């Protein structure tokens, strides 16, 4: 029982801290790209900014409009957040530092990652607001479309590693000597990152929020701490998907040439560094790209990403059998 | 009976069964008056079927301030204060046609130097307006960064306007017969009138070079962006015929391929002494409307640079009576404002103020095209098209 509690506590704290690190990165990246002095200099060079933001949201009034479906409206943010935290359970920081090394780790991750959709959809539906509803429906359409390339991109890795356990996948990469992104899964990696960006609803795929069109999409009616939960979940999701991407494609907690017996010490640092690099790329994309249109997004998923990932699986399978 | 079961009939039966569709009601979506991308308080009542927009009705009047009526009880020098609040993004250029109309009725010859100063400031107002458009439009298609660059560069131009007029947005700088002595001139008598502030030429040159650089940067960073092209090319195509039929003017009309620019056609300011191009679009889509404005910024900067090099010397103010009374008569003066054609119809009965003042603003006519352009558009396109019209609600409602 204690062990379970410790694990759950670790998950929540780790995911939250990851989210805060990514918030700092996003805000500082934005101010750096936009030449804004504020977040670069105010308050310990901008590092306590997320704390101020959290405090601001916590003390604001939690407005619940009269027409909303109250229980659904209230629980939707929690639903989104829990599905994000649960996702982190299978990410290994080292062969032993892992909350749950599941045999079907990849399967679990992909299944849980699509659970958040329900939270978003219910948030949009229960808000009794047309903008929220459209945002929720857009989110549902988008997440269904991008779930497929996400899964299919991972299938290539699974074939190559011959296991669905995330620890097993990393061990296979150590055995190979090079991470999978070099060892033949470059297309899979790119597809995974594009689909993951769409999954976490970030620019250029942020139509469910699309503040210039739908004001704030499914979050329009939320305020105070419930809005904060959505906000944190977005970064949590970004952190965890980046961590999964670095585990699957970039060699996870290990870099070549480092001694494997010390992996428990350097593993977390290595994984966090890789995650942060991926996160920085996403930040750079977010602050430099416009938003796609809804139909363009669907076209990209169904006409380009899914066929490409199918070809990727085919090639991987043929090579696997051939050699 | 045999015929009834023939292959043709079977075909029609099957088609009939296929063509039964789910009938859904259109959702009425109120976009505005409070909405992030309606540039103020425009309200669009849109009938949407999912993402598709079927019918749009713009509802105006949320910002009606009654300037036309108010002008009837104000004297001519007071009215410039009102009119530069019409299109607040380019406050200075609103004053020009009104002042030019009053001067025409009074038959005053404005000194060349005053005209040049007016021209320089008008072009600066155009540049700052287009800067705002560039930032806001990128924001509307989802790019969050360009607005910070645009605002920073605009600030440089606004500083110049402020150094001359004392106001960033509402200069209230024009006087009948000339321009006001520059800010900080102290007590003014006609003899010791102070001219443009020290260092103005140098600062303007630097700022205009920066504007040209910024326009180049926009062309690369926004115009060269694949996603931006995808969002704007072939979206919201406006044919020249429709544009002319609806009285659309300014960059929107030029983007549709009509080479019409009042700076060349009328003589409210000495534009004929400068060498500049009028950028014209080809397709009349959102991208062209954006592109024309960016190119216009460069042309405006070129005009300002030329004007500074050839600035005539002389007085700033023509001789005008102490109490300004405009003789009986009527006139219509139109000018090329950043948003399009702006005109003032002044009817004077010889009093201190106009008997009637009719303001023709560009944005009002430009917004009237929305229902036609938005027919069958997608919701994200609605925002892209609306943003590309670059209207200001103060300019629509007056």
Strand fraction of chain A: under 5%
**Helix content bin of chain A:** over 70%
The name of the CATH architecture of chain B is: Orthogonal Bundle
Number of domains of chain B: 1
Protein chain pair with the most extensive contact, residues per chain: A-B, 29 and 30 residues
Run of helices and strands of chain A: HHHHHHHHHHHHH
Instruction: Estimate the global geometry of chain A from the Cα principal axes.
Output: globular
Could you give the order of the helices and strands of chain B? HEEEHHHHHEEHHHHHHEEEHHHH
Which fold name is given in CATH as the topology of chain B?
A: Cytochrome-c3 Hydrogenase, chain B
Biggest sheet record of chain A:
none
- Rounded to an integer in angstroms, the radius of gyration calculated over CA atoms of chain A is 20 Å
Number of strands of chain B: 8
Question: Main β-sheet of chain B, in a few words?
Answer: 3 strands, antiparallel
Oligomeric form of this entry? heterodimer
Mean pLDDT of chain A: 83
Mean pLDDT reading of chain B: 82
* Widest β-sheet, arrangement of strands of chain B: 1-2-3
Query: How many strands of chain A?
Result: 0
* Amino-to-carboxy terminus distance of chain B: 72 Å
Superfamily (CATH H level) name of chain B:
Cytochrome-c3 Hydrogenase, chain B
Rg estimate of chain B, integer Å: 25 Å
Write a brief structural summary:
Chain A is mostly helical and 323 residues long.
Structure description:
The complex is a heterodimer of chains A (323) and B (398). With 323 residues, chain A is mainly alpha-helical. Chain A is built from 13 helices and no strands. Chain A is globular and about 65 Å long. Chain A has one domain. In chain B, 50% of the residues are buried. The longest helix of chain B has 29 residues, at 112-140. Chain B has one domain (30-397): Orthogonal Bundle (Cytochrome-c3 Hydrogenase, chain B). Helices cover 47% and strands 12% of the residues of chain B. Chain B is globular and about 75 Å long. Chain B has 398 residues and is an alpha+beta fold. In chain B, the strands form three sheets. Chain B has a three-stranded antiparallel sheet with strand order 1-2-3. In chain B, strands 6-7-8 form a three-stranded antiparallel sheet. Chain B has a two-stranded antiparallel ribbon with strand order 4-5. Residues 184-192 of chain B have low confidence and may be disordered. Classes of the chains: A mainly alpha (323), B alpha+beta (398). The A-B interface holds A 30, 33-36, 130-131, 134, 137, 203-204, 206-207, 210-213, 215, 286-296 and B 27, 29, 35-37, 50-51, 138-145, 148-149, 152, 221, 225, 227-228, 230-231, 378-383.
């Amino acid at each position: 029982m204690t062990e379970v509690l410790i694990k759950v506590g670790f998950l929540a704290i780790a995911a939250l801290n990851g989210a805060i690190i990514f918030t700092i990165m996003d805000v500082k990246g934005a101010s750096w790209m936009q030449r804004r002095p504020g977040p670069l200099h105010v308050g310990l060079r901008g590092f306590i900014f997320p704390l101020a933001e959290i405090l601001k949201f916590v003390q604001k009034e939690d407005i619940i409009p009269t027409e909303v479906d109250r229980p659904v409206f209230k629980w939707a943010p929690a639903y989104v957040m829990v599905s994000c935290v649960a996702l982190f359970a299978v990410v290994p920081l080292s062969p032993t530092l892992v909350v749950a090394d599941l045999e079907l780790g990849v399967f679990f991750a992909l299944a849980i990652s699509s659970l958040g959709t329900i939270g978003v959809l219910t948030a949009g539906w229960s808000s009794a607001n047309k903008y929220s509803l459209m945002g929720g429906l857009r989110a549902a359409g988008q997440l269904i479309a991008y779930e497929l390339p996400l899964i299919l991109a991972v299938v290539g890795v699974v074939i190559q590693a011959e296991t669905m356990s995330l620890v097993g996948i990393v061990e296979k990469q150590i055995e190979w000597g090079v991470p999978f992104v070099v060892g033949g899964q470059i297309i899979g990696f790119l597809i995974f990152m594009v689909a993951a960006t769409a999954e976490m609803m970030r620019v250029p795929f942020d139509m469910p929020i699309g503040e210039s069109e739908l004001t704030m999409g499914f979050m329009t009616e939320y305020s105070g701490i419930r809005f904060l939960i959505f906000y944190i979940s977005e970064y949590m999701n970004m952190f965890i998907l980046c961590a999964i991407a670095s585990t699957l494609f970039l060699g996870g907690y290990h870099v070549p040439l480092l001694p494997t017996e010390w992996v428990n010490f350097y593993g977390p640092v290595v994984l966090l560094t890789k995650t942060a690099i991926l996160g920085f790329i996403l930040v750079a994309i977010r602050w430099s790209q416009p938003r796609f249109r809804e139909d363009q997004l669907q076209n990209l998923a169904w006409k380009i990403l899914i066929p490409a990932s199918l070809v990727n699986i085919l090639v991987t399978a043929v090579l696997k059998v051939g050699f | 009976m045999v015929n009834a079961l023939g292959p043709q009939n079977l075909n029609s039966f099957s088609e009939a069964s296929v063509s039964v569709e789910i009938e859904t009601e259109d959702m009425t979506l109120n976009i505005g008056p409070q909405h992030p991308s309606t540039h103020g308080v425009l309200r669009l009542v849109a009938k949407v079927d999912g993402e598709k927009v079927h019918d749009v009705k713009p509802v105006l009047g949320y910002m009606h301030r009654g300037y036309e009526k108010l002008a009837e009880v104000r004297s001519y020098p007071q009215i410039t204060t009102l009119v530069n609040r019409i299109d607040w993004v380019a406050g200075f250029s609103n004053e020009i046609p009104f002042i030019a109309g009053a001067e025409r009725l009074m038959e005053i010859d404005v000194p060349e130097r005053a005209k040049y100063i007016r021209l320089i400031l008008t072009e600066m107002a155009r540049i700052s307006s287009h800067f705002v458009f560039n930032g806001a439009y990128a924001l509307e298609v989802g790019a969050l960064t360009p607005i910070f660059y645009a605002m920073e560069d605009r600030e440089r131009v606004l500083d110049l306007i402020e150094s001359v007029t004392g106001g960033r947005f509402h200069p209230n700088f024009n006087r009948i017969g000339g321009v006001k002595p520059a800010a900080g001139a102290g007590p003014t008598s006609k003899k010791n009138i102070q001219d443009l502030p020290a260092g103005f030429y140098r600062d303007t040159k630097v700022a205009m070079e920066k504007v040209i650089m910024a326009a180049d940067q926009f062309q690369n960073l926004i115009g060269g962006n694949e996603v931006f092209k995808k969002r704007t090319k072939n979206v919201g195509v406006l044919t020249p015929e429709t544009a002319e039929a609806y009285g659309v003017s300014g960059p929107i009309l030029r983007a549709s391929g009509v080479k019409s620019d009042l700076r060349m056609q009328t003589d409210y300011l000495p534009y004929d002494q400068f060498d500049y191009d009028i950028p014209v679009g080809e397709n009349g889509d959102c991208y062209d409307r954006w592109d024309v404005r960016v190119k216009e910024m460069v042309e405006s900067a070129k005009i300002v640079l030329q004007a500074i090099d050839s600035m005539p010397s002389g007085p700033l103010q023509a001789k005008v009576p102490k109490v300004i009374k405009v003789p009986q008569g009527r006139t219509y003066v139109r000018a090329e404002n950043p948003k399009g054609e702006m005109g003032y119809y002044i009817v004077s009965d010889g009093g201190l103020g106009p008997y009637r003042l009719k303001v023709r603003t560009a944005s009002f006519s430009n917004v009237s095209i929305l229902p036609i352009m938005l027919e069958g558009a997608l919701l994200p396109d609605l925002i892209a098209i609306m943003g590309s019209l670059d209207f200001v609600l103060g300019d629509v409602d007056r």
